[in-house]
């Protein structure tokens, strides 16, 4: 019997695919998670794993995330107020369909200061004032104590003037609220006008982010402001140059103010524009004041001028004609508050009468975004000489709404229970906490 040998078995070599490279956790956190929007991190990243939750809360992560957010154009927040019984309803149809009850007290003034994603909103009824610090990205908020322990008996505090600023202290990685008050010696009326005489301008700060937010903090006295502060000009906080807050002030030795330099409407023929003829730079770290001159040719902060922050630097939008504006930017003076160097960045002509222009943001290509009369948002491309209206403020949808009574909500449509938008606030998206150290 013949045996037929079997065929030799074929051997198949199986080639495994190369292993997928894994991203080290430290690189994933520092270079990828820090570039994600704060809203995504809060909704998703914290629910993925324990290490990610810890990373998002780490102060180093928060600072890195903020650094990258500053390099992107900020979000623009539209702030409006609840309707009051005194609101005018010119549109009969709108009046007939409005069912929202009026607010209890009429808010006559609203101001908003911003720094690193924190917004300090102060409202005043003319008698009382309320300040709330709010992070629109994290929805953290805290009310600021109104009473001042530093004004003293018989002194008139400027709390109701809603002039509250917020700034960053790089030495502590904390945030500071700033406000002032007058040490009044007498107050009387002259021909129906209130005349207040004082012997000094006190200044106080309140530090937040120390573990108790602002609710458990107290206003602390600093050195006095050297000049009378004009609270009709909102203060401005700039992150560059060591962290500083700028107040508009009136230096009696610097001339008579605007004089003939003012370019105002006919109803402001005296041209004094409020009287502020100098800026006071308050160093958040050193808690000291230094004079900061206005741009060349600006005798004062006119009624149609605006002092703002633009990409971390001080900005001055000056009306030079009924239709035209010069936009100046000051280089950071450094931590010691050195001499500023103003430079003229843009000249914008609308070819129609415009009351005021408030710069909001600037892109990497130098395109300027600005609010015009708090009604429209315009974009100006200097290189291509293009001026374009990009939004009507009253028609902008607001995704996040602050209800002013302490509650929050989301609204993808125009808030029908709010009156007209009062002001626009540029705000970077950040994870900065109001309650803990950053």
UniProtKB/TrEMBL annotation:
Organism of this sequence: Urochloa decumbens
Protein name per its UniProtKB record: F-box domain-containing protein
Pfam families: F-box-like
Chain positions covered by the region annotation Disordered: 81-102
Span of domain F-box: 23-65
Annotated Acidic residues bias: 85-96
Database matches in InterPro entries: F-box-like_dom_sf, F-box_dom, SCF_F-box_component
PANTHER family: BNACNNG10540D PROTEIN, F-BOX PROTEIN CPR30-LIKE
